[in-house]
């Protein structure tokens, strides 16, 4: 899985996802992250088809939403995603949220989708250690990925360590906290030293923690900026100074149907 990808949540304006994918592909992005809940799989599929990069070099992630898990027709939901994307396989299929009482059954169908080759890898999102343990205890295939909100204001070192110990890759979603940390002085000072933006410092901090990142932007200059994070390195003191910004701040809300 590429370490860098383009997030596509809220890229729903006309032509937005498609244009963003085409620009990003030219700049070297190869991973595109969508979900059935984002309501843009058709446009994402169009972007993938028209971006000029061979399908086999592109990594496409999509996710199953909570109501499909409750209804229980997982395979149908997966097929609908493939139809919308106009693809015959996805590279990664994720359970977007751990719906209580459902996620283990969902995972058993995911295991079949993996075995069929139509989902090249399967994983989860927003799972904590308990839920990962529960899943692994009741299934055969260990999730390839746990996609979790992770950024300087929401340090997830504990779950990251658990995942890495169990061979689960960590992919940081909302890695820019939707802009919430970009004005912090600690980050500004470090950004000035490296002639970078605070967004690039936050993304680099995640890469150095062993996480993949999927910042979202539909603006060309920011798509480019967010990709320029592989040619400098933060030192230990800088990593620790950024660690200290943690406030357990969540920028993406937990879906209402899970707040019981
Ligand atoms: N699994 C899940 O439950 C889950 C939850 C949240 C997110 N995700 C995934 O993770 C992706 C990223 O998360 P996100 O979209 O919530 O938030 P994000 O990537 O943290 O932040 C995106 C916001 O920051 C702006 N932005 C992007 N680059 C910037 C830069 N260099 N400087 C200043 N502002 C910048 C974007 O605006 P512009 O577009 O106008 O540039 C957008 O408003 C999503 O798109 C989605 O694919 C998954």
Summarize the topology.
Blueprint: E1 6-7, H1 16-26, E2 31-33, H2 41-50, E3 59-64, H3 66-71, H4 74-85, E4 92-95, H5 103-116, E5 122-125, H6 129-137, E6 145-149, H7 157-165, E7 169-173, H8 185-194, H9 198-208, E8 212-213, H10 220-227, H11 236-243
Parallel strand pairs: 1-2, 2-3, 3-4, 4-5, 5-6, 6-7, 7-8
This protein binds NADP nicotinamide-adenine-dinucleotide phosphate (NAP).
NADP nicotinamide-adenine-dinucleotide phosphate is lined by residues 7-9, 33, 96, 125-126, 147, 173-179, 182, 197, 199, 214-219, 222, 225-226, 252.
Tell me what the structure shows.
This protein has 260 residues and is an alpha/beta fold. It has one domain (6-258): TIM Barrel (Alpha-Beta Barrel). Helices cover 42% and strands 12% of the residues. The protein has 11 helices and 8 strands. It has helices at residues 16-26, 41-50, 66-71, 74-85, 103-116, 129-137, 157-165, 185-194, 198-208, 220-227, 236-243; strands at residues 6-7, 31-33, 59-64, 92-95, 122-125, 145-149, 169-173, 212-213. Helix 8 crosses helix 9. The protein is globular, with a radius of gyration of 18 Å. The mean pLDDT is 97. The site of NADP nicotinamide-adenine-dinucleotide phosphate has 28 residues, from helix 10.
């Amino acid at each position: 899985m590429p370490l860098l990808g383009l997030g596509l949540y809220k890229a729903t304006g006309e032509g937005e996802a498609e244009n963003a994918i085409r620009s990003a592909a030219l700049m070297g992005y190869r991973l595109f992250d969508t979900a059935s809940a984002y309501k843009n799989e058709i446009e994402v599929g169009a972007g993938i088809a028209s971006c000029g990069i061979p399908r086999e070099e592109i990594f496409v992630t999509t996710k199953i939403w909570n109501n499909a898990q409750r209804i229980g027709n997982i395979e149908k939901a997966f097929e609908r995603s493939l139809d919308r994307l106009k693809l015959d396989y996805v590279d990664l299929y994720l359970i977007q949220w751990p719906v209580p009482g459902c996620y283990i059954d969902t995972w058993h169908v995911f295991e079949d989708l993996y075995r069929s080759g139509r989902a090249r890898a399967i994983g989860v999102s927003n799972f904590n250690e308990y839920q990962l343990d529960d899943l692994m205890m009741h299934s055969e295939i260990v999730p390839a990925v746990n996609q979790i909100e992770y950024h300087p204001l929401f340090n997830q070192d504990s779950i990251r360590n658990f995942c890495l110990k169990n061979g689960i890759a960590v992919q940081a979603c909302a890695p820019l906290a939707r802009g919430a940390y970009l004005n912090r002085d600690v980050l500004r000072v470090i950004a000035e030293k490296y002639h970078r933006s605070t967004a690039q410092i936050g993304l680099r901090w995640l890469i150095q923690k062993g996480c993949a990142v999927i910042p979202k932007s539909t603006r060309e200059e920011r798509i480019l900026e967010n990709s320029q994070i592989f040619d400098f390195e933060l030192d230990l003191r800088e990593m620790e100074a950024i660690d200290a910004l943690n406030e357990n701040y969540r920028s993406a809300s937990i879906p209402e149907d899970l707040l019981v």
